[in-house]
Amino acid sequence: MTSSAVASESFLPAMSAIAREAGALLLQYFQQKLKIEYKGEADLVTAADRASEALIRQRVSTQFPSHDVLGEEQGLKDRGSEYRWYVDPLDGTTNFAHGYPVFCVSLALEHRSTSACRIAAVVYDPTRNELFSAEQGRGACLNGQPIRVSKITQLKESLLATGFPSHKRHQNPNIYFYHQITLRTHGVRRAGSAALDLCNVACGRFDGFWEFNLNPWDTAAGVLIIEEAGGRVTRFDGSPFEIDSRETLASNGLVHQALVGEFLTIFNGRGLEPLPDPREYAERRRAKL
Ligand code: IPD
Ligand code: CA
Ligand code: CA
């Protein structure tokens, strides 16, 4: 047993309780019509994001007063600890703000000694009462039951997921990847919560997921949960994923090389299916009328 596995032993129950409490708070806000504020052009934030992060920080500082916390809404509280929490207090804010019930709380704990490594993670979806969890070297669970990634080996038989960032979205090329990979698989879902997308790969509902420009608080928990469920996470070229990689390519492991190959092909602009031209469609439509 590694020293970090020992270190994580007592953290998961506390992390789960904090995530459940924050999730219950989100549900209370979800019943109300909240004012939406903007951090960027389409980058939303609500009182629920702030209240959830405040609650999580309060619980962490009471139970683990020396630990550092990096949260989406308040940034880094650096106390010089070997432990760092990655906190997304509400992943799926746009869904939440529109009343679409796909959102979660995401918490990961990193131990930073010789190298930084995530040792425990929880993602809680309060709308489905689903708590995904993992500890380094000890597997992943959904509501306490062990989970594994899917056994699909062929990309053409897989169901994938992706997301589109709200920040600088006009600079993002993901629509090309969405189009090409949709045509080569059973389909690509875009549900609006990266942390849940990752967990859905971990429990076999999706066979893979990718996104450009995710932040550490979006991926820290979900990546550990996938890896502990037997899956794989890399950059788009197959090189090792790091917490600030800004490229996330996750899968059941079995379709990973095929996905890396697709990314290479699409980045090189080879073998691309042309996007249907809407003007040609409109002309055919007019001719039929
Ligand atoms: C967002 C969600 C979404 C992803 C965006 C993220 P937020 O996080 O995970 O699925 O596509 O890139 O920013 O802002 O709702 O915490
Ligand atoms: Ca997020
Ligand atoms: Ca968030």
3D structure, described in words:
- The strands form three sheets. Strands 4-3-5-6-7-8-9-10 form an eight-stranded mixed sheet, sandwiched between helices.
- Helix 2 (11-30) runs antiparallel to helix 3 (47-63).
- With 289 residues, it is an alpha+beta fold.
- The protein has nine helices and 15 strands.
- Mean pLDDT is 93; it is low at 1-8.
- It folds into two domains: 3-146, 2-Layer Sandwich (Fructose-1,6-Bisphosphatase, Chain A, domain 1); 155-267, D-Maltodextrin-Binding Protein, domain 2 (3-Layer(aba) Sandwich).
- The chain is globular and about 70 Å long.
- The protein binds D-MYO-inositol-1-phosphate (IPD) and calcium ion (2 copies).
- D-MYO-inositol-1-phosphate binds next to strand 5.
Question: Any descriptors?
Answer:
single chain, binds D-MYO-inositol-1-phosphate, D-Maltodextrin-Binding Protein, domain 2, 5-stranded mixed β-sheet, 2 domains, Fructose-1,6-Bisphosphatase, Chain A, domain 1, 289 residues, globular, 9 helices, binds calcium ion, alpha+beta
The total strand number stands at: 15
- Note the quaternary state here: single chain
Strand order of the largest sheet: 4-3-5-6-7-8-9-10
CATH class of the largest domain: Alpha Beta
| Cα-based radius of gyration, to the nearest Å | 20 Å
Can you identify the CATH superfamily of the largest domain?
A: Fructose-1,6-Bisphosphatase, subunit A, domain 1
CATH fold description of the largest domain: Fructose-1,6-Bisphosphatase, Chain A, domain 1
Specify the number of helices.
Answer: 9
Q: Runs with pLDDT <50, length 5+?
A: 1-8
Total number of distinct structural domains: 2
**Class by SSE composition:** alpha+beta
Strand fraction equals 15-25%
Report the end-to-end length measured between terminal Cα atoms. 71 Å
Basic shape = globular
Helix content: 25-40%
Heterogens? D-MYO-inositol-1-phosphate, calcium ion
Give the biggest sheet: 8 strands, mixed
Q: What would CATH call the architecture of the largest domain? A: 2-Layer Sandwich
What does the average pLDDT come to? 93
Please trace the helix and strand order, writing H or E for each element.
HHEEHEEEHEEEEEEHEHEHEEHH
